[in-house]
Specification:
Distance between the termini: 43 Å
Structural class: alpha/beta
Order of helices and strands: EEEEEEHHEHEHEHEHEHEHHHHHEHEEEE
Number of strands: 17
Radius of gyration: 22 Å
Helix content: 25-40%
Strand content: 15-25%
Length: 432
């Protein structure tokens, strides 16, 4: 007797016509035509059933704050940082919690059930940490939320950066963050990487640093981060986010850097929407894209996952909480348009990001948590192209969000019909 069976599912690995049996919030069987009693059934009707989407890089303390205290007129990273610095002293715990909870509601509707959020620790009041720790507890039944202690103004450059970051960790923030390229000098940036990795090693915590979010090819803190990860025995527990300077580095240096990153088992988190928006701002033409070297990093066996980063905040006036929008942009900017490329992009939104976050029992195998999204698409390639409706979002075997399929009624001479955007007649299979 099962609690739920999902019938006729297509899986991300290419299997079709699969049944998924669930009991006590776990997957009990994944196979064709499961003959068993069940409390309820959902027919996927040949649509894609995938593990939930995972966002390993987000700023929930800033989300939905667009226009406060004013708009980012230049659209640049530095003006966004300035605006956040103006807004930060006015933040209240109540307002932070309210905005974060609204975003979490949106995330659930998009099938996004795992989020790693950076928490600005530069304000000695630490209201951001207080608020997001509260949110982490509130959303625990349906979203796994990890928090990174992030010294936005710089670990050394910020007035109380060192003390505030340690206080945030003492409060229960999960991960050690940093921003070495924003320190006053390259030397202080390198010193901050060493100090923060030492803290992580001493406390037994992971590391996730904003690293080299710049067009400057001489910003090479990722090299220091990889070396310190090896020095402190943090292999596999360190993430380098953004890494946009790698876009501008010469190929010889990168040929040395990537093997070092692989040796350190660095997790790489590009943010395609924000990277393509903010980088190359000092260029006329040709204008750099700014996204790090996704294809080359993947080819070296490095775990690459994609983050949404921002939604309607001082840095980015757009965003939807839809990780497929992130992947859709990555296909274009990284020029990864082949079928196998797109499968890798989809993995970077799911299983790769789950690895970055160290998630347990994530996936579509027996024994994994019964967490799924049913999409109005047949496979990962269609999902990335269409950014389709989430027909059902399931957490531990229970449906927590539903949407109606996207359809349209067309009334044309001799062509009146109903169009289902998940209908196979509108899709091409076995094409490159």
């Amino acid at each position: 007797m099962f609690d739920l069976i999902i019938r006729d599912a297509n899986l991300p690995d290419g299997r079709t016509g699969i049944d998924i049996a669930i009991r006590d919030g776990r997957i009990e069987a994944v196979e064709r035509r499961i003959e068993a009693e069940t409390g309820s059934e959902i027919s996927a009707l040949g649509r894609l059933v995938t593990p939930p989407f995972v966002d390993p890089h987000f700023h929930m303390d800033a989300t939905l704050s667009l226009g406060l205290p004013r708009m980012n007129i230049s659209g640049t990273l530095l003006e966004g940082i300035t605006l956040w610095g103006e807004l930060r002293p006015t933040l209240t715990k109540e307002a932070l919690v309210e905005r974060a909870m609204r975003y979490c509601d949106l995330a659930v509707s998009q099938g996004l059930l795992f989020i790693r959020s950076h928490v600005d620790t530069s304000d000695p009041r630490l209201v951001t940490a207080q608020a997001l720790i509260e949110v982490r507890e509130q959303v625990k039944p349906y979203i796994d939320l990890q928090l990174v202690a992030f010294p936005q103004d710089g670990y050394y450059r910020g007035k109380e950066g060192v003390a505030c970051l340690n206080r945030a960790l003492d409060m229960g923030v999960d991960i050690v963050g940093g921003i070495p390229h924003f320190e006053r000098t390259m030397e202080e940036g390198a010193a901050s990487v060493e100090a923060l990795c030492r803290i992580a090693a001493d406390r037994g915590l992971p590391v996730d640093m904003h690293c080299d979010e710049t067009d400057d090819p001489m910003s090479r803190h990722i090299e220091t981060l990889a070396a310190q990860a090896i020095r402190f025995g943090l292999q596999g527990r360190v993430a380098g986010s953004h890494l946009t300077s790698m876009h501008s580095m010469d190929n010889y240096y990168v040929s040395k850097l990537i093997p070092l990153m692989a040796e350190a088992e660095i997790n790489v988190i590009p943010n395609p929407l924000i990277n393509i928006m903010l980088q190359g701002r000092h260029d006329t033409y040709p204008k750099r894209r700014g996204l790090t070297r996704v294809r080359e990093l993947m080819a070296a066996g490095i775990n690459v996952s994609f983050g949404h980063d921002c939604v309607m905040d001082p840095w980015y006036s757009m965003g939807s909480g839809d990780m497929l929008e992130v992947g859709h942009m990555a296909i274009h900017v990284a020029q990864m348009s082949g079928m196998e490329d797109k499968r890798k992009i989809f993995d970077a939104l799911t299983i790769n990001s789950a690895k970055t976050m160290g998630l347990e029992n994530y996936g579509m195998k027996k024994g994994c948590n019964a967490d799924f999204v049913i999409l109005q698409a047949r496979d990962p390639l269609e999902a990335l192209r269409l950014k389709p409706v989430r027909l059902a979002v399931i957490r531990r075997g229970k449906v927590i969000a539903r949407s109606l399929p996207r359809t349209s009624e067309v009334d044309l001479p001799d062509r009146s019909r109903s169009i289902d955007f998940g209908d196979p007649i509108y899709h091409v299979t076995n094409a490159g």
